[in-house]
Amino acid sequence: MTAQINKGEDKKECFVIMPFGGWFDTYFKEVYVPAIESAGFKAVRADDFYRPGNIVNDIWNCTKNSELILADLTDKNPNVFYELGLANAITKPAILITATMEDVPFDLRSLRVIEYNKSFPNWGEILKDKISRAIKETIKSPEEAIPPTFLETKSTKKLSVSSDSKEILKIRSELESLKREVRTYPFRREVDFEDDDAERIFSFVHSNLLHGAMTEKEIFENLSAKGIPDTIIYGNIQLARKELKE
pTM here? Predict the structure, then answer.
């Protein structure tokens, strides 16, 4: 198995775990690589899963030598989950990416998960920005990007934390899982409005994003079904997102 490695001798590696072929190769080159490099890391991806050779050994070495993992769980690819399991076992911090939360197992939803929506014209740029920021934040607190079960509470070669810290991380993990489950509960802040009712449209978008009642994709589909023009929907989502960040 060969490995695609972007040049940059002084940069630490980010191992990208994802399916291969088709659009996934395009995503890797045009979205993941630029995002990873903008965060100061070197993107590494293992190719040629099906050529003869010690595949597991190559994957293992890539996993061990990387500073962190970026895993695209879209379509529930078994190879991706296998490699992610190896990374979890040796406490490598992992950032998860998916086109739909349904592809993320319940036990992993407490970790940092970036969901992308190809319905937006600039979804690639949005995803690059999210990945870059997630990498920088993960490096500052790597223990929060690892399932608490795998964290050691004694001095080992693995990333370790104190017993109290591990309990706190477990609580945070459970809270994150609950928050994601609440977002899937059939609660919606519905409202009727006309195309030119700008204030009510923005209020609808802002309220649902603030309370996690709808994802951006769900907001778009809901407003689109009511006949609201796409440009108005995108504009309100971007404005609401900006205000929430501030």
Answer: 0.59
3-state secondary structure 75-93: HHCHHHHHHHHHHHHCCCC
Radius of gyration over every alpha carbon of the chain, rounded to an integer in angstroms: 20
Residue-wise pLDDT for 161-206, tens only, equals: 677 777 777 777 777 666 655 554 444 444 555 545 777 888 888 8
For the domain made up of 3-169, give the CATH fold: Rossmann fold (3.40.50)
End-to-end CA distance of the chain: 46
Residues spanned by CATH 3.40.50.450 within the chain? 3-169
CB 9 within 8 A of CB 41: no
- Asked whether the beta carbons of 94 and 119 are under 8 A apart, the reply is no
The pair of three-digit structure tokens given for residue 69, joined into one six-digit string: 């993992």
Measured between alpha carbons, how far is 93 from 150 in angstroms, rounded to an integer?
A: 11
Distance CA 68, CA 32 (A): 14
